[in-house]
Write a structure and sequence with these properties.
CATH topology of one domain: Rossmann fold
Helix content: 25-40%
Number of helices: 11
């Protein structure tokens, strides 16, 4: 244990991955929650050495890395010491002070940072990004007041489903809007399937990758991702072009995720996130072999992006979903459930699933898992999923699976 001058700095060795591809890249992943789990998973698939930085000694992503340092990244001396010799810094958190510290260190040290602070500043404010879309003619759900009920209320500064609420009563909505603290975005609830796509690159050279299908739980948190997308081919192309146009609008230099909802033949933008997302990159990798983290790092290091340099093979069918086993019940729930348990381990052939990121250890009564299924097509992947769910229910004597969707969906 070392005295970092800013709290505790402790090196924690972890089990090394047997995958040694990746050209000797040492990636520093900052943040060990769900984004960190995604980054560690993808870095492992790329064959990189993985260093995790987190304020907590036992973050969920710890078992997925080679070594870990426990520190406050806002302490310059501790951060400089921890990042000595790394090849790339991968932010996997949304703490403004921590991100500012990482940007400052990267500029001082010259170490590539897989993050675009300017684009993130736009995407981290739903109010600012929605105004940008409206001013530039991009389709978004109608704003309240001025739209019919039901209405979705979203805190402007939160990502994903955090804090999202649905209102079907005008009086309740007006009371909430009057009392709500901070900035909120109020939009018509648009019924229809949701889709996501990632864009990587810089001005003049953007690549939009595979479109994925999203399914939400009752709290509007993503519970399941699938590929290839069921979106009509002409809408896929429209979505990918729209995503590249948005990337150009914000002058993206890195990676951005775009989420839309389909209503009839129209696509309406729900949100953008100029950061490494969770869930969808794993699905894109399993379906196409494209590693979005590797593409991002290639871009940030000035290397040629691999997926842009070679044809992508025909996509495989993939289903990813999050399950929660507790008190004799099995539920499919949004990703938030994964952050309540840890540490998280990567297992193969998990009751029939090709892979699982799970908190389950022998003897535990309550556990979670992100299940990943791959097959020749989506129907076969879904059949494998059904077999795995049945096997888990039989093994742990669980009631029929609870798999809820949002109200009105």
């Amino acid at each position: 244990m070392l005295d970092a001058g800013c709290g505790r700095l402790c090196a924690i060795p972890c089990e090394r991955s047997a995958d040694t591809r990746g050209g000797g890249v040492l990636a520093a992943i900052v943040g060990g929650k769900l984004q960190g789990v995604e980054a560690a998973y993808l870095a492992r698939k790329a064959g990189w050495e993985r260093l995790l930085l987190d304020k907590r000694p036992q973050p969920p992503a710890l078992p997925l890395v080679d070594r870990s340092v426990c520190l406050d990244v806002c302490c310059p001396a501790a951060l400089e010491r921890a990042l000595k010799g790394v090849d790339v810094i991968v932010p996997a958190l949304e703490n403004d002070a921590a991100l500012t510290s990482l940007v400052r260190h990267a500029r001082h040290s010259g170490v590539p940072l897989a993050f675009d602070p300017a684009a993130y500043a736009v995407s981290s404010s739903k109010k600012r990004s929605d105004r940008l879309f409206l001013d530039n003619g991009f389709p978004v759900p109608p704003a309240w007041p001025g739209c019919p009920l039901p209405v979705i209320a979203k805190p402007s500064g939160e990502s994903g489903s955090t804090g999202v609420r649905l209102f079907s009563d005008e009086t309740a909505l007006r009371t909430f809007a009057r009392r709500a603290e901070g900035e909120w975005v109020y939009q018509a609830f648009v019924e229809g399937p949701s889709y996501s796509v990632e864009v990587v690159g810089g001005p003049g050279r953007y690549t939009a990758f595979q479109v994925t299908d999203l399914e939400m739980d009752r709290n509007y948190d993503c519970k399941r991702v699938a590929a290839p997308s069921g979106l009509a081919p002409h809408l896929k192309r429209r979505f990918q072009e729209m995503a590249k146009d948005i990337a150009a609008l914000v002058a993206l230099k890195g990676l951005m995720d775009v989420e839309v909802v389909q209503h009839g033949d129209a696509l309406r933008i729900l949100e953008i996130d100029a950061r490494l997302p969770s869930q969808t990159p794993i699905v894109v990798h399993a379906s196409t072999g494209v590693n979005l983290l590797a593409e991002l790092v290639h871009f940030c290091r000035g290397d040629r992006m691999e997926a842009a340099a070679q044809p992508v093979p025909a996509p495989r069918g993939v289903v990813l979903e999050h399950i929660h086993a507790a008190r004799g019940r099995l539920a499919v729930q949004g990703e938030h459930i994964m952050s309540r348990y840890g540490p998280l381990y990567l297992e193969t052939d998990f009751f029939g699933a090709d892979e699982a990121v799970t908190s389950r250890v022998n003897g535990c009564d309550a556990w979670v898992a992100t299940l990943i299924f791959q097959e020749s097509d989506r129907a076969a992947a879904w059949a494998k999923r059904q077999q795995t769910i049945d096997a888990i229910r039989r093994r742990f004597h669980l009631e029929p699976v609870k798999d809820e969707s949002p109200q009105g969906a």
